[in-house]
Amino acid sequence: MKWGIFLLSLVFLSGCATYKQDIDAGLSLAKQGEWKAAEEKLEAVLDNPQDKLLYYMEVGALAQNQGDFERSNTLLEQAERLSDTFFPDTFSNRSWALLTNPRQSNYRGSGLERVYISYLKSLNYLALAEQEEGRSQKQQLKDAALVEVRRIAIKLNEIQAQTPTYQDLNAKENQAFYMKALSWLSNFYTGGRDTDQFLYRDDAWARYMEGLQYEISGEYDDARISYQQAARLYQDGYAKQYELPELSAERAWLDTIRMMQKSGFRQDEIQRKIDAKLSAPMQQTLEQYQDKNAELIVLEHQGFIPDKSEMTLLLYADPRAYSLVLEPLHGGGSLENNDAFRWFTMVYADVNPLNLIANYKAGGAWGTFSGIFTKRVILGRPAWQQLSAINLDQLLTEQTLRITVPYYQGFTLDKYQPSLSVNGTQPDAPTSLPSSDTFTMASLADIALQEQLAQAQRDIYEGLVRELLRSWLAYQVAANVQDEGASLLLNLIGQVAIFVSSAADTRNWLTLPAQVRLTRQPVAPGGYSPTYKVKQNTFFLGDVHLKANEMKVWNLRNPD
Fold first, then answer.
1. How far apart are CA 364 and CA 330, in angstroms?
2. DSSP string for 177-246
3. Global pTM?
């Protein structure tokens, strides 16, 4: 049995290495804009039962980047069905994941990923509607796009119902000191950190896209409501949480005001909103929207959401303090190791009073200071006695266990300011127009990072329980062998096999963009050949003819 565990571990490690290499190879192709080659690579590695949701999401996004909108929607609809249902969570599936690693279980996705399945589908339907000549079919496709944004609203409302709002967080900041102290004390056993501030509670950009889809369909009051929801979210805390420019809220307020104008609101109401919400430059932008104008809208989906890495922690027992101690494995001064250590210090290190006291009792003043570099799990005497009853305390004092958790390495988002040139192709059209400002409206990279921060404590405790169980089972097998030499040999082999096979679940939807930038340019009806420049890259839309009141959406995927 022990040899079986060892051989399974070797096979598993080989499979993990191949999986990671193939994922990185596919992602590398995508970053070069080689969408078809990237799809073929990722399709091969993700075509298995536990990664089925990831398969449909990744391949669906890559199909959209190739302009194959119908196939993209077919794939994303499969992802939609999987993400909205409970996976068959069989005993064998859970048991195998527990004895190997969590990547062997079915991937279930995150709230962000569920929302952006519908987001991409709505863009697919919009692109298909623009390609359609028949009025009836065009309207059906626009209606299908609206179905997707209503799905977005439903999903966001579900997420919102389970998380505190920005108003709740602001109220917590403004509450009396004694209430803050009680809240602080209640966080002792969650690492002393208030994870509420990192939660994905709503999505201002997705709400904004609801407004845009409603506006395109001529449902101006619904568009106003959605734009206003987005504006309030940006203003109340979304922009601050994800480090977006304050002007993102102003842009949403501007579009709210435009919909008020189209919906027949009184001029005095509109003027009050303009005076309250728009700066002088944004008021000038509002004045560019004249009756019968067309509009070019550029959605730049830039970069890629970061991929997760694995951090190795060493677990050992401290019987004097009736506790377990975790510390990061020090691997030198490379950038990756420094990022891992900073993540550990930020998320896991002992900073609350109970752990500081335990560290002090175990090691004096130096023990208190060393807590900055460790995480202590205080069990107490009763729990320690239970560990002793099953000889787990002996196992932990004789060997060091390896716990593996996911984390994000440091990343820097592109802050380059793009430019849009709208060149006229007809004699009566302007040869060039200055572009409106481009705004970063969403940072999916920051959302993913903060979601990981919010669940970091769960990850470390699940990893701890998993490795304790695996080690205890292997220890029991070796302990029941009668021959002392064989028992020692099996115990050594088991320790090595379990140590090297520890792994974390680092899966996520990697072809999502890191951030989304928005440019909206009102133009007179006519023919144009728009170009969009960002850094060293120039993108061409081709020749387009815009009619009065027509809205043209340019869904631009920038891999750089």
1. 23
2. HHHHHHHHHHTGGGTT--GGGGS----HHHHHHHHHHHHHTT-HHHHHHHHHHHHHHIIIIIHHHTT--T
3. 0.87
- C-alpha to C-alpha distance for 332 and 447, rounded to whole angstroms: 30
Distance CA 341, CA 348 (A): 10
Strand, coil or helix: 312:
strand
Nearest Cα residue to 345 out of 369, 365, 321: 369
pLDDT along the chain (560 residues), means of 10: 49 60 93 96 92 96 97 97 66 58 85 97 96 91 96 94 85 50 43 76 97 96 97 96 95 98 95 97 93 94 95 88 85 75 84 55 53 79 83 75 91 92 66 67 96 91 85 69 61 61 89 97 93 93 93 96
Determine the Cα angle at 148 with ends 289 and 449, to 5°.
90
The separation between the first and the last C-alpha atoms of the chain, rounded to the nearest angstrom, is: 50
Q: How far is CA 528 from CA 93, 290, 348, 436, 520, in A?
A: 56, 18, 55, 16, 15
* Pairing outcome for strands 438-443 and 537-540: unpaired
Q: Enumerate the domain spans of the chain.
A: 199-291, 308-410+452-500
CA angle in degrees (0–180, nearest 5) for 99-103-108 = 120
